[in-house]
């Protein structure tokens, strides 16, 4: 059995929940775990779960994003299936986050560009997750930039043992690039009130992290575990 867990995303000003990033978990009511292999989930499975989950979301949640690894991202079936359901999600706006996970061997730049173009043509909002980490480095960002709407920078990828101040040069680089390229910019990994104080004065669009909200279980329409409360800070 699979379910989504959702971590709230907050606008910076005002500091308020604007959506969820969705994470797939598998198991049962008493034993949910992170899957070892996300590629085993088909487009149909993910979209069916979306259809079953979105009617139970809090009314203040109007935006959701799901993560796709490279092999899923370049598979036309995923784009086609997500496009087929995006207008059926009870008024919820759907975005795609391309993860920083390693590129599948043999994947070409042309395949990446063509995939990004497909999502753009389907009016599916595209986010580059964890820029500056993994394979989402400057080369890929520049390659896909015409089709991307948002960059996310994950502070937690440079921790533990590194203070937020030491991360600032990297964060500043990506923030400035986002402004230059007219992209929205989200900072993930806001883990303390001190982080929040520093970053709230940093002119970003959105914030995400444990101090604002941890991932929560999202029930489906037929789930006996009840509903979830609206996000709050």
TrEMBL record:
It comes from the Bacteria. Residues 1-229 form the EAL domain. InterPro entries: Cyclic-di-GMP_PDE-like, EAL_dom, EAL_sf. GO terms for molecular function: cyclic-guanylate-specific phosphodiesterase activity. This is C-di-GMP-specific phosphodiesterase.
């Amino acid at each position: 059995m699979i379910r989504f867990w959702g971590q709230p995303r907050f606008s910076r000003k005002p500091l308020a929940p604007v959506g969820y990033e969705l994470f797939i978990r598998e198991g049962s009511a008493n034993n949910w775990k992170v899957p070892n292999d996300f590629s085993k989930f088909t487009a149909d499975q993910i979209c069916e779960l979306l259809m079953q989950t979105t009617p139970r979301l809090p009314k203040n949640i109007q935006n959701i994003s799901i993560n796709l690894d490279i092999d899923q991202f370049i598979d036309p079936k995923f784009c086609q299936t997500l496009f087929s359901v995006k207008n059926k999600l009870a008024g919820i706006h759907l975005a795609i986050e391309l993860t920083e996970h390693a590129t599948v061997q043999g994947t070409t730049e042309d395949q990446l560009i063509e995939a990004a173009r497909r999502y753009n043509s389907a009016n599916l909002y595209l986010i580059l997750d964890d820029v500056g980490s993994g394979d989402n480095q400057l080369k890929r960002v520049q390659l896909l930039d015409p089709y991307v709407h948002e960059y996310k920078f994950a502070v937690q990828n440079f921790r533990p043992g590194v203070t937020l101040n030491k991360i600032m040069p990297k964060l500043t680089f990506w923030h400035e690039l986002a402004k230059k390229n007219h992209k929205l910019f989200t900072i993930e990994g806001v883990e303390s009130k001190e982080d929040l104080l520093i970053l709230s004065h940093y002119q970003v669009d959105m914030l995400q992290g444990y101090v604002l909200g941890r991932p929560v279980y999202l029930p489906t329409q037929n789930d006996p575990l009840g509903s979830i409360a609206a996000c709050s800070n």
